[in-house]
Amino acid sequence: MVPKRTAMTSVDRAWLRMDTAENPMMISGVLILEHPISIKRLKHTLEERFLKYHRFRQRVVEKGDRAYWQDDTLFDLDNHLHRIALPGKAGKEELQALASDLNSTSLDFRRPLWQMHYIENYQEGAALLIRIHHCIADGISLARVLMSLTDRTPEPKLKKFAGLRKSVKPEGRATSRFLHRLVDSGQAGWQQASLFLASVRHDPNYPLKLAATAGGIAMDLVKLGFAPAEPDTSLKRQLVGRKKVGWAEPLVLAEVKQCAKILGGTVNDVLLCVATGALSRHFAEQQQPVPDCGIRVAVPFNLRPLDQPIDTLGNRFGMVLVNLPIEVLDPIMCFRQVRENMNRLKRSYQAQVTFSLLDLFGRGPDVIERRALELLSNKASAVLTNVPGPRYAVYLAGSKLIQPMFWVPQSGNIGIGMSIFSYADTVQFGITVDKGIPAEPEAVMRYFQESFQALYQAALAEEQDTDIRHAS
């Protein structure tokens, strides 16, 4: 019996083909647990909540220029969930070393592209290290999927599934598939035409607004293509494929929000400013010249509604290039510059443009995608993600989740990935660095903490000055 197979979308295929020895396209995570958990209960949770997404039971099959998801007829959870222990009185350093080892290793393409390692003997509890290939889904979606494994209380009421939800449609004959696509395209075209006419009736200026939008998209495409390459700094070095992973002690979310309120910005503005300060301190400590124009980071921009459940996997996000003014040393001035840069990006179509480019690259020959990827990756020094998590503490298989961290992969010649994840009134910050780049994760973590304290104290001082002026 031939296993079921479905064609991979062009965007997911683009991420599949980005995989290199230097940059495996894996989204990884570390979930630190307060107490050890039962492997039997963990398996039950995975079978009930994780494997309901049929994609995790499928492997990738490539035929010429096409890629497919094909059911793994030999699927066994034990091939993907591994149980190991750290030696002696293992602490953060040992867990970071293990995470670095695994993040430097590619996944097995003979099986579905994900793995989990349950790690015993970590401090008083345990940890779960997760690796999932980017072609399965984007980081924001996967973070939400992994958080769906957790509960608000230690003892949830687990229900047995009568069967797994299937997200794969039977392939059918080629003629049948063609007719279905033709009908779908016709229906989509008719719906778009009806929507357009309704919009014109509601607003006679709609065609002009549509043309303006199209012009804006075209302009952002031109800007992206002609943006200058990143300056030659120590952050842009030849990659070796060996990763170094680290994470900081969490920030207090209430303090981050207070800082944002005082300065008239968003939490995201504060965190980007703090990351800017951390990189600025890195250049200063290494006695390296700071580029006058700052540096750019590629920031994933979610295109999937956050208020809706994840029904299907896949990649639904674009990338925006954010300028970090690392040359601005004053924390308040740096914040204002970051805020201005972010407000400008919010009015652009850069995320939609990059998503469309990924769709286009995924449809074309491999050599074109490689050239385009090289061109785009030359325009950023790092990847920075900011993903919202649960606002309350959650439990995995009965054990409280103390600290979660996630990292997205870096593509092309980018060798640094910074990750921000909010959880239970805290903000987690982590980094992964290629060994070819002279930057130590632990040092950057320290700079991140120092940068936030400098901005927070400056914000409090500014608030006090404002109160004094108003009082007088």
UniProtKB/TrEMBL annotation:
The keyword Lipid biosynthesis applies. It catalyses: an acyl-CoA + a 1,2-diacyl-sn-glycerol = a triacyl-sn-glycerol + CoA. It comes from the Bacteria. Pathway: Lipid metabolism; Glycerolipid metabolism; triacylglycerol biosynthesis. The keyword Acyltransferase applies. GO terms for biological process: glycerol metabolic process; triglyceride biosynthetic process. Residues 314-455 form the O-acyltransferase WSD1 C-terminal domain. Residues 8-270 form the O-acyltransferase WSD1-like N-terminal domain. Its EC number is 2.3.1.20. One of its GO terms (molecular function) is diacylglycerol O-acyltransferase activity. GO terms for cellular component: plasma membrane. Keywords: Acyltransferase, Glycerol metabolism, Lipid biosynthesis, Lipid metabolism, Transferase. Belongs to the long-chain O-acyltransferase family. This is diacylglycerol O-acyltransferase. It comes from Marinobacter halophilus.
